[in-house]
Amino acid sequence: xxxxxxxxxxxxxxxxxxxxxxxxxxxxxxxxxxxxxxxxxxxxxxxxxxxxxxxxxxxxxxxxxxxxxxxxxxxxxxxxxxxxxxxxxxxxxxxxxxxxxxxxxxxxxxxxxxxxxxxxxxxxxxxxxxxxxxxx
Amino acid sequence: xxxxxxxxxxxxxxxxxxxxxxxxxxxxxxxxxxxxxxxxxxxxxxxxxxxxxxxxxxxxxxxxxxxxxxxxxxxxxxxxxxxxxxxxxxxxxxxxxxxxxxxxxxxxxxxxxxxxxxxxxxxxxxxxxxxxxxxxxxxxxxxxxxxxxxxxxxxxxxxxxxxxxxxxxxxxxxxxxxxxxxxxxxxxxxxxxxxxxxxxxxxxxxxxxxxxxxxxxxxxxxxxxxxxxxxxxxxxxxxxxxxxxxxxxxxxxxxxxxxxxxxxxxxxxxxxxxxxxxxxxxxxxxxxxxxxxxxxxxxxxxxxxxxxxxxxxxxxxxxxxxxxxxxxxxxxxxxxxxxxxxxxxxxxxxxxxxxxxxxxxxxxxxxxxxxxxxxxxxxxx
Lengths: 136, 381
Fold this sequence. Notes:
Chain A is mainly α. Chain A contains 5 helices and no strands. Chain B has a 5-stranded mixed sheet with strand order 2-1-10-5-6. In chain B, strands 3, 4, 7, 8 and 9 form a 5-stranded antiparallel sheet that branches. Chain B starts with a helix and ends with a strand. The chains are: A mainly alpha, B alpha+beta. Chains A and B meet through helix 1, helix 3, helix 4 and helix 5 of A and helix 3, helix 5, helix 6 and helix 7 of B.
């Protein structure tokens, strides 16, 4: 093992140990059980639910004549929906502070998704036109 | 039966048909993610250090907008990392099902650290996103959990980079092999989609801190123009429980501690002292920021009036009874800066209760949480 490798393992291992030690020592604030549930829960939700859904969507869109732009559009739309979801749900709204989450996020997300759908549709049409011209 | 399961498991990774589950795509996305996580870790540590400086350490009060930029990078950059993370995890997903799961002890350790890396990455990005959306759905303190998990993430990342560096080098620098054109197009299209998702994430959020783009901030948790006096608020006077006490006619601002002459000034006395106007940003740890014109008394003028030593540390205390941010320390570089004010006005009008009436601290290059509101006491030490 060369020096750079050992240094890397030393540094990385040290940071991991520091993180675990901090989580344990600061237990009053970090609530290790609650932390572990979130940590593990997110892995399970991602690997067990989210990715399988994405894979199924990938298979389903494979039946289309132009899968790539549709897949790209759905990917971008899904990411921006994920980002907007907590704001659309309005979980953080507080009556005493209207400057928190001040926008109509449901409407804004629809605008964004509409734009993505429009660009996707235009791309599909352009690809088909190009294809039929090539054939014709 | 056992044999059939094993045959099934051995065959599973091969069933992921897309050519995008490749080392080359993983190397490219891994490089982008490594850079993003490094920026997030560095800016996060910077913010932590500013809020909890160890010992007598100080940080400079200039450049005025430094914290605004580093925290904007942390939050907006962090949001833009989410598409990269999802894409990277999708790319390497078949490896989750490799069979046998562990070939040796060192392979088991390596996979355990990858699990830590994946878990910590999902934890940091999800809790970060929820936190800037004010959705506190957890039993822990977000700053503490986010801070310590960052070490876990970055440590596991360093080890992962050491293990995978040879592959990244081979894929991105030294490989000389002609690929079919179709494969190149497919990869570019995929990476372009991921870049578009990150780019649109930035476009639709960055206006909460970069005001010229505020018109595009459709999915930002804040609008830099919305709030009392056109400025966002984090904690309202009602939430701080100070709505009555801030209008007490017996209000006094006191300066005590290590001073030659203790001061006790009524609101009208403050108005009679030399007033200064500065244009400063208020930059929240949650990533939003906006600029305003603040007027009031220079903190250093007040300190000079009381005879405070130039290397003293000032503690500014709020009328708020409790809460983690009821007081803040102002170290010498900040209180000696002529831009640091005990502000009485925003854009010429008295502070709104939610902005800290009667008096609030405003200083350059400083997290918003430390710009203490409803100030009634300054203690020199």
